[in-house]
Design a protein that fits this description.
mainly alpha; elongated
């Protein structure tokens, strides 16, 4: 257990701990309804923060440092 605690501390994983008292047993229909109600209550800024976090997890980059666009692959052309 000590090794796992040290690894979690080193990787900064202690900041994201699961609060097991915040959840309840529910059906899939209830969960869908409750989730929709929760996200509708958030401001658009809070939803944007969540989207940024999910993108960083999905594409494996640091949360507030998205990868830069490789401008050598794209060029600007004018329409005639």
């Amino acid at each position: 257990m000590f090794i796992i605690a040290v690894i979690n501390l080193y990787l900064g994983m202690d900041s994201h701990r699961l609060d097991r008292t915040a959840f309840k047993a529910q059906t899939a229909e209830e969960a869908t309804k409750n989730q929709a109600l929760y996200y509708k209550q958030l401001t658009w800024q809070e939803r944007l923060i969540i989207a940024n976090y999910l993108n960083s997890v999905a594409y494996n980059y640091p949360e507030n440092e998205p990868p830069r666009l490789d401008k050598t692959l794209f060029s600007i052309r004018r329409r005639k």
